[in-house]
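Notes to self, Trafficking protein particle complex subunit 2-like protein:
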Amino acid sequence: MACCVAVIGKDNSPLYIRVSNPETELYLHFTVHSSLDVVEERVNSLAKSSVGDIRELYLGLLYSSETHRVYGYATNTKVKFIIVLDVSRVQNVNENELRSMFRRIHSAYADAICNPFYIPGDQIDSTKFEAIISEILL
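result:
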């Protein structure tokens, strides 16, 4: 379903980026990084407004182009998850399905960083995390 999944640290450094098609890797890296500005705006606006629920982690559609749609999710610790969908492969997007994918990534991320040998801020290198991302990228 997804063509790219990224985990971005609280200082906007990439902790994990994986694409399904290596030919589009550079373009998708650019797309993920360009969507970070929108993530920061949404997170800051939720924190400032009393109307928005700060506990709402799903940010929704961040960026849309002719070929891709970018969706975001931010944790309370300011770690960001980005999913890029290919418009040619996915016509109708189910918001509940996207929320479920983000929850799965968040859970797998929490399991990966709870490893006592993981150093915070390093690249994520976990076979279980990799398996979850592989399922999402199918």
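- The radius of gyration is 14 Å.
- The first strand starts at residue 2 and ends at 8.
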